[in-house]
Amino acid sequence: MFSKMKTRSAFTLVELLVVIAIIGVLVGLLLPAVQAAREAARRMSCSNNFKQIGLGLHNYHSAFNKNMMQSGGTYGTDSTYSNRYLLSYLVGMTPFIEQQGVWEQISNPRAVNHNGSARTPPFPAMGPVPWHREYTPWMTQIGTYRCPSDPAVSTTNTEAYTNYAACIGDGVASNNHSCLDEWGEPMGWCTPARIGSFNRGFFQSRTAVGFRDVLDGLSNTIACGEIVVDNGNREVAGAVVNRGSDAQFFLTPNICDDTVDPLRPKFHAEGTNTNSWEASQNKGLRWCDGRPVMTSVTTINPPNGVSCSWAGDGSDAMVTMGSRHPGGAHVLMGDGAIKFITSSIDTGDRSRNTPAWPVNTSNTPRGSASPYGLWGAMGTRASGEIVAVP
Protein backbone atom coordinates (compact mmCIF):
# COMPACT_ATOMS: atom_id res chain seq x y z
CA MET A 1 0.00 0.00 0.00
CA PHE A 2 1.82 3.16 1.18
CA SER A 3 5.54 3.10 1.86
CA LYS A 4 6.93 4.83 4.90
CA MET A 5 9.26 7.83 4.04
CA LYS A 6 12.69 7.84 5.63
CA THR A 7 13.44 10.89 7.86
CA ARG A 8 16.81 12.28 8.82
CA SER A 9 17.12 13.15 12.53
CA ALA A 10 20.78 14.31 12.85
CA PHE A 11 24.00 15.33 11.11
CA THR A 12 26.41 12.68 10.08
CA LEU A 13 29.77 12.59 11.82
CA VAL A 14 31.50 13.95 8.73
CA GLU A 15 29.11 16.88 8.47
CA LEU A 16 29.54 17.68 12.16
CA LEU A 17 33.31 17.67 11.84
CA VAL A 18 33.11 19.98 8.81
CA VAL A 19 30.90 22.44 10.72
CA ILE A 20 33.27 22.41 13.70
CA ALA A 21 36.23 23.00 11.39
CA ILE A 22 34.48 25.95 9.74
CA ILE A 23 33.64 27.45 13.13
CA GLY A 24 37.25 26.99 14.23
CA VAL A 25 38.55 28.76 11.15
CA LEU A 26 36.12 31.65 11.66
CA VAL A 27 37.10 31.99 15.31
CA GLY A 28 40.77 31.96 14.30
CA LEU A 29 40.10 34.72 11.82
CA LEU A 30 37.98 36.78 14.20
CA LEU A 31 40.12 36.60 17.37
CA PRO A 32 42.94 38.84 16.08
CA ALA A 33 40.34 41.32 14.88
CA VAL A 34 38.62 41.27 18.28
CA GLN A 35 41.92 41.75 20.08
CA ALA A 36 42.86 44.58 17.72
CA ALA A 37 39.48 46.21 18.33
CA ARG A 38 39.97 45.94 22.09
CA GLU A 39 43.43 47.48 21.89
CA ALA A 40 42.07 50.24 19.66
CA ALA A 41 39.46 50.99 22.34
CA ARG A 42 42.12 50.95 25.08
CA ARG A 43 44.36 53.19 23.02
CA MET A 44 41.52 55.66 22.49
CA SER A 45 40.79 55.66 26.22
CA CYS A 46 44.50 56.21 26.88
CA SER A 47 44.50 59.17 24.49
CA ASN A 48 41.35 60.57 26.14
CA ASN A 49 43.04 60.44 29.54
CA PHE A 50 45.94 62.41 28.09
CA LYS A 51 43.48 64.90 26.63
CA GLN A 52 42.00 65.42 30.10
CA ILE A 53 45.50 66.06 31.47
CA GLY A 54 46.05 68.59 28.69
CA LEU A 55 42.83 70.40 29.57
CA GLY A 56 43.83 70.36 33.24
CA LEU A 57 47.22 71.83 32.36
CA HIS A 58 45.63 74.69 30.42
CA ASN A 59 43.01 75.35 33.09
CA TYR A 60 45.75 75.48 35.72
CA HIS A 61 47.70 77.95 33.60
CA SER A 62 44.58 80.07 33.16
CA ALA A 63 44.20 80.21 36.94
CA PHE A 64 47.83 80.84 37.91
CA ASN A 65 49.51 82.08 34.71
CA LYS A 66 52.15 79.35 34.96
CA ASN A 67 52.42 75.56 34.75
CA MET A 68 52.26 73.37 37.82
CA MET A 69 55.78 72.64 39.02
CA GLN A 70 57.53 69.34 38.40
CA SER A 71 59.32 68.39 41.63
CA GLY A 72 57.82 71.14 43.76
CA GLY A 73 55.96 71.30 47.06
CA THR A 74 57.20 72.25 50.52
CA TYR A 75 60.78 72.79 51.68
CA GLY A 76 62.78 71.00 54.33
CA THR A 77 64.65 67.79 55.01
CA ASP A 78 62.15 66.20 57.42
CA SER A 79 60.55 63.29 55.55
CA THR A 80 57.30 63.37 57.53
CA TYR A 81 56.58 67.07 57.93
CA SER A 82 57.67 68.28 54.51
CA ASN A 83 57.83 66.65 51.10
CA ARG A 84 61.37 67.96 50.45
CA TYR A 85 60.38 69.67 47.22
CA LEU A 86 59.75 66.33 45.49
CA LEU A 87 56.08 66.40 44.38
CA SER A 88 55.21 65.80 40.73
CA TYR A 89 53.18 68.07 38.47
CA LEU A 90 50.33 65.56 38.76
CA VAL A 91 49.68 66.60 42.37
CA GLY A 92 48.75 70.16 41.39
CA MET A 93 46.76 68.75 38.49
CA THR A 94 44.23 66.91 40.69
CA PRO A 95 41.62 69.68 41.22
CA PHE A 96 41.64 70.39 37.47
CA ILE A 97 40.78 66.82 36.42
CA GLU A 98 37.73 66.38 38.67
CA GLN A 99 39.74 65.01 41.63
CA GLN A 100 38.76 67.71 44.08
CA GLY A 101 38.33 65.19 46.90
CA VAL A 102 41.94 64.03 46.61
CA TRP A 103 43.16 67.63 46.43
CA GLU A 104 41.23 68.57 49.59
CA GLN A 105 43.00 65.78 51.45
CA ILE A 106 46.39 66.92 50.14
CA SER A 107 45.98 70.65 50.65
CA ASN A 108 44.84 70.37 54.29
CA PRO A 109 46.49 68.84 57.39
CA ARG A 110 45.55 65.17 57.80
CA ALA A 111 45.33 63.54 61.23
CA VAL A 112 44.58 60.00 60.01
CA ASN A 113 47.00 57.31 58.82
CA HIS A 114 46.25 55.17 55.80
CA ASN A 115 45.20 52.29 58.07
CA GLY A 116 42.63 54.50 59.80
CA SER A 117 44.51 55.09 63.03
CA ALA A 118 44.88 58.59 64.48
CA ARG A 119 48.06 60.52 63.79
CA THR A 120 49.56 63.09 66.19
CA PRO A 121 50.81 65.54 65.11
CA PRO A 122 48.94 65.38 61.79
CA PHE A 123 50.49 65.30 58.36
CA PRO A 124 51.00 68.90 57.17
CA ALA A 125 49.23 70.48 54.23
CA MET A 126 50.75 69.19 50.94
CA GLY A 127 51.77 66.01 52.69
CA PRO A 128 55.02 64.20 53.47
CA VAL A 129 57.59 62.77 51.05
CA PRO A 130 56.08 60.85 48.10
CA TRP A 131 57.16 57.44 49.40
CA HIS A 132 55.39 57.77 52.77
CA ARG A 133 52.95 54.85 52.76
CA GLU A 134 50.86 56.02 55.71
CA TYR A 135 49.59 58.99 53.74
CA THR A 136 46.34 58.02 51.99
CA PRO A 137 46.45 60.49 49.04
CA TRP A 138 49.79 59.07 47.84
CA MET A 139 48.29 55.57 47.96
CA THR A 140 45.17 56.57 45.97
CA GLN A 141 45.17 55.35 42.37
CA ILE A 142 43.71 58.01 40.07
CA GLY A 143 42.16 56.47 36.97
CA THR A 144 42.99 59.39 34.71
CA TYR A 145 46.69 58.81 35.36
CA ARG A 146 46.59 55.21 34.07
CA CYS A 147 46.58 54.00 30.47
CA PRO A 148 44.26 50.95 30.08
CA SER A 149 46.76 49.32 27.71
CA ASP A 150 49.30 48.97 30.54
CA PRO A 151 48.39 45.96 32.73
CA ALA A 152 50.85 46.66 35.56
CA VAL A 153 49.18 46.58 38.97
CA SER A 154 50.56 46.91 42.47
CA THR A 155 50.86 43.48 44.08
CA THR A 156 51.12 45.01 47.54
CA ASN A 157 48.54 47.82 47.14
CA THR A 158 51.14 50.25 48.46
CA GLU A 159 51.82 52.22 45.28
CA ALA A 160 49.72 54.27 42.88
CA TYR A 161 51.04 54.38 39.34
CA THR A 162 51.06 56.79 36.39
CA ASN A 163 51.58 56.42 32.63
CA TYR A 164 51.90 60.15 31.92
CA ALA A 165 55.14 62.01 32.59
CA ALA A 166 56.40 65.61 32.28
CA CYS A 167 58.83 66.43 29.47
CA ILE A 168 61.98 68.05 30.90
CA GLY A 169 63.93 68.34 27.64
CA ASP A 170 67.12 66.84 26.24
CA GLY A 171 69.52 67.02 29.21
CA VAL A 172 70.67 64.41 31.74
CA ALA A 173 72.98 66.00 34.29
CA SER A 174 71.16 67.51 37.29
CA ASN A 175 67.77 67.27 35.62
CA ASN A 176 66.34 66.14 38.97
CA HIS A 177 66.87 69.48 40.70
CA SER A 178 67.99 72.18 38.20
CA CYS A 179 70.51 73.44 40.78
CA LEU A 180 67.88 74.13 43.49
CA ASP A 181 68.17 72.25 46.77
CA GLU A 182 65.38 70.90 49.00
CA TRP A 183 64.91 74.40 50.44
CA GLY A 184 64.50 75.97 47.00
CA GLU A 185 67.89 77.68 47.31
CA PRO A 186 70.53 77.76 44.50
CA MET A 187 73.34 75.26 44.83
CA GLY A 188 76.69 76.99 45.11
CA TRP A 189 78.51 74.89 42.50
CA CYS A 190 76.02 75.76 39.75
CA THR A 191 77.17 78.42 37.30
CA PRO A 192 74.70 80.46 35.18
CA ALA A 193 75.84 78.52 32.09
CA ARG A 194 75.07 75.25 33.84
CA ILE A 195 71.64 76.35 35.03
CA GLY A 196 70.69 77.43 31.51
CA SER A 197 71.43 73.99 30.13
CA PHE A 198 69.26 72.07 32.60
CA ASN A 199 65.69 71.07 31.86
CA ARG A 200 65.23 72.78 28.53
CA GLY A 201 61.79 71.21 28.17
CA PHE A 202 58.22 72.32 28.72
CA PHE A 203 58.73 71.56 32.43
CA GLN A 204 61.79 72.36 34.52
CA SER A 205 62.42 70.61 37.84
CA ARG A 206 61.84 72.85 40.88
CA THR A 207 61.17 75.86 38.66
CA ALA A 208 57.82 77.28 37.52
CA VAL A 209 57.61 77.65 33.74
CA GLY A 210 54.81 79.42 31.88
CA PHE A 211 53.49 79.40 28.33
CA ARG A 212 55.38 82.61 27.61
CA ASP A 213 58.64 80.70 28.19
CA VAL A 214 57.82 78.28 25.36
CA LEU A 215 59.35 80.43 22.62
CA ASP A 216 59.30 77.60 20.06
CA GLY A 217 55.50 77.61 20.21
CA LEU A 218 53.08 75.44 22.17
CA SER A 219 52.10 73.43 19.10
CA ASN A 220 55.77 72.57 18.44
CA THR A 221 56.77 71.58 21.98
CA ILE A 222 56.04 68.35 23.86
CA ALA A 223 54.51 68.98 27.28
CA CYS A 224 54.15 65.38 28.46
CA GLY A 225 54.88 61.87 27.24
CA GLU A 226 53.50 58.40 27.79
CA ILE A 227 55.53 55.87 29.80
CA VAL A 228 55.36 52.15 30.60
CA VAL A 229 55.23 51.25 34.28
CA ASP A 230 58.13 48.95 35.18
CA ASN A 231 56.74 45.43 35.76
CA GLY A 232 60.01 43.91 36.92
CA ASN A 233 60.59 41.90 33.72
CA ARG A 234 63.64 43.85 32.50
CA GLU A 235 61.62 45.19 29.58
CA VAL A 236 63.46 47.92 27.70
CA ALA A 237 60.30 50.04 27.47
CA GLY A 238 59.68 49.95 31.22
CA ALA A 239 62.94 49.37 33.10
CA VAL A 240 65.43 52.08 34.07
CA VAL A 241 68.99 50.74 34.16
CA ASN A 242 71.03 51.88 37.14
CA ARG A 243 74.47 52.66 35.70
CA GLY A 244 75.93 53.31 39.14
CA SER A 245 79.09 55.42 38.97
CA ASP A 246 79.30 54.94 35.18
CA ALA A 247 78.35 58.40 33.95
CA GLN A 248 79.55 57.89 30.37
CA PHE A 249 76.00 57.96 29.07
CA PHE A 250 75.96 61.66 30.00
CA LEU A 251 78.38 62.11 27.12
CA THR A 252 77.22 59.49 24.63
CA PRO A 253 73.63 58.36 25.30
CA ASN A 254 73.79 55.33 23.02
CA ILE A 255 76.20 53.71 25.49
CA CYS A 256 73.10 52.71 27.45
CA ASP A 257 72.12 50.40 24.57
CA ASP A 258 74.84 47.92 25.59
CA THR A 259 72.59 46.16 28.13
CA VAL A 260 69.93 45.15 25.57
CA ASP A 261 69.76 41.40 24.95
CA PRO A 262 70.69 40.93 21.24
CA LEU A 263 68.54 37.80 21.05
CA ARG A 264 65.55 39.46 22.71
CA PRO A 265 65.81 43.17 21.84
CA LYS A 266 62.72 44.11 23.83
CA PHE A 267 64.46 43.01 27.03
CA HIS A 268 67.65 43.77 28.88
CA ALA A 269 70.15 40.94 29.31
CA GLU A 270 70.11 38.89 32.50
CA GLY A 271 72.12 40.50 35.27
CA THR A 272 71.35 44.05 34.12
CA ASN A 273 71.09 46.35 37.13
CA THR A 274 67.51 47.58 36.93
CA ASN A 275 65.97 49.16 40.01
CA SER A 276 64.07 46.52 41.99
CA TRP A 277 60.36 46.34 41.32
CA GLU A 278 58.04 47.99 43.87
CA ALA A 279 60.94 48.40 46.25
CA SER A 280 62.23 51.89 45.65
CA GLN A 281 62.77 53.68 42.36
CA ASN A 282 60.96 52.57 39.21
CA LYS A 283 59.45 54.19 36.16
CA GLY A 284 55.87 55.30 36.82
CA LEU A 285 55.83 53.73 40.29
CA ARG A 286 54.43 56.76 42.16
CA TRP A 287 52.31 59.40 40.45
CA CYS A 288 53.07 61.88 43.25
CA ASP A 289 56.89 61.59 43.00
CA GLY A 290 58.54 64.32 40.90
CA ARG A 291 61.95 62.71 40.43
CA PRO A 292 62.85 62.00 36.78
CA VAL A 293 62.75 58.21 36.98
CA MET A 294 59.16 58.34 38.28
CA THR A 295 57.30 61.03 36.37
CA SER A 296 59.62 62.79 33.91
CA VAL A 297 60.73 62.03 30.37
CA THR A 298 63.58 63.23 28.15
CA THR A 299 63.69 63.46 24.36
CA ILE A 300 67.00 61.72 23.70
CA ASN A 301 66.23 58.08 22.93
CA PRO A 302 63.18 57.36 20.72
CA PRO A 303 59.91 55.99 22.16
CA ASN A 304 60.33 52.50 23.66
CA GLY A 305 64.12 52.97 23.76
CA VAL A 306 66.49 52.46 26.68
CA SER A 307 66.24 54.44 29.93
CA CYS A 308 69.15 54.73 32.38
CA SER A 309 70.08 56.70 35.47
CA TRP A 310 73.28 57.65 37.23
CA ALA A 311 72.17 56.62 40.71
CA GLY A 312 69.69 54.34 42.40
CA ASP A 313 67.59 57.27 43.58
CA GLY A 314 66.66 58.05 39.97
CA SER A 315 68.58 61.31 39.76
CA ASP A 316 70.45 62.42 36.63
CA ALA A 317 68.34 60.19 34.43
CA MET A 318 67.70 59.67 30.74
CA VAL A 319 64.08 58.51 30.96
CA THR A 320 62.51 57.46 27.69
CA MET A 321 58.87 57.52 26.63
CA GLY A 322 57.12 54.29 25.74
CA SER A 323 53.79 52.49 25.61
CA ARG A 324 52.00 49.17 25.14
CA HIS A 325 50.63 50.40 21.81
CA PRO A 326 52.36 48.94 18.75
CA GLY A 327 55.08 51.09 17.22
CA GLY A 328 55.37 54.16 19.42
CA ALA A 329 53.78 56.28 22.17
CA HIS A 330 51.46 59.22 22.70
CA VAL A 331 52.70 62.71 23.49
CA LEU A 332 50.77 65.74 24.71
CA MET A 333 51.79 68.90 22.90
CA GLY A 334 51.80 72.25 24.66
CA ASP A 335 48.64 73.36 22.84
CA GLY A 336 46.73 70.32 24.11
CA ALA A 337 46.96 68.22 20.95
CA ILE A 338 47.65 64.49 21.28
CA LYS A 339 50.15 63.01 18.81
CA PHE A 340 51.30 59.43 18.31
CA ILE A 341 55.07 59.37 17.79
CA THR A 342 56.63 56.30 16.19
CA SER A 343 59.77 54.62 17.51
CA SER A 344 61.50 55.42 14.21
CA ILE A 345 61.46 59.20 14.72
CA ASP A 346 64.71 61.04 13.92
CA THR A 347 66.90 61.26 17.05
CA GLY A 348 69.96 62.87 15.48
CA ASP A 349 73.36 62.07 16.97
CA ARG A 350 73.14 59.96 20.13
CA SER A 351 76.89 59.37 20.07
CA ARG A 352 77.88 62.99 20.53
CA ASN A 353 80.78 63.84 22.83
CA THR A 354 80.44 66.75 25.24
CA PRO A 355 82.49 67.90 28.27
CA ALA A 356 82.32 65.54 31.23
CA TRP A 357 80.20 66.12 34.32
CA PRO A 358 80.75 67.57 36.84
CA VAL A 359 83.77 69.48 35.51
CA ASN A 360 81.52 71.13 32.96
CA THR A 361 77.93 70.68 31.91
CA SER A 362 77.26 67.53 29.93
CA ASN A 363 73.97 68.95 28.71
CA THR A 364 73.57 70.98 25.54
CA PRO A 365 74.57 74.64 26.18
CA ARG A 366 71.76 77.14 26.49
CA GLY A 367 70.54 78.55 23.19
CA SER A 368 71.98 75.67 21.16
CA ALA A 369 69.92 73.43 18.91
CA SER A 370 69.29 69.95 20.25
CA PRO A 371 71.73 67.34 18.90
CA TYR A 372 68.94 64.75 18.98
CA GLY A 373 67.26 65.61 15.71
CA LEU A 374 63.53 66.21 15.36
CA TRP A 375 62.87 64.37 18.62
CA GLY A 376 65.19 66.60 20.62
CA ALA A 377 63.81 69.72 18.94
CA MET A 378 60.25 68.76 19.91
CA GLY A 379 61.36 68.30 23.51
CA THR A 380 62.95 71.75 23.95
CA ARG A 381 60.97 74.92 24.49
CA ALA A 382 63.23 77.76 23.34
CA SER A 383 66.00 76.50 21.06
CA GLY A 384 64.66 78.11 17.89
CA GLU A 385 64.56 74.95 15.73
CA ILE A 386 62.06 74.70 12.91
CA VAL A 387 59.92 71.70 13.78
CA ALA A 388 57.60 69.82 11.41
CA VAL A 389 55.53 67.92 13.97
CA PRO A 390 54.59 64.46 12.63
UniProtKB/TrEMBL annotation:
Gene3D superfamilies listed in its UniProt record: Glycoprotein, Type 4 Pilin (3.30.700.10)
Pfam families, sorted: N_methyl, SBP_bac_10
Domain DUF1559, first and last residues per copy: 35-347
Region (Disordered): 349-368
Superkingdom of origin organism: Bacteria
PANTHER family, alphabetized: GENERAL SECRETION PATHWAY PROTEIN G (PTHR30093), TYPE II SECRETION SYSTEM PROTEIN H (PTHR30093:SF2)
NCBIfam families named in the record: IV_pilin_GFxxxE, pre_pil_HX9DG
The protein's name: DUF1559 domain-containing protein
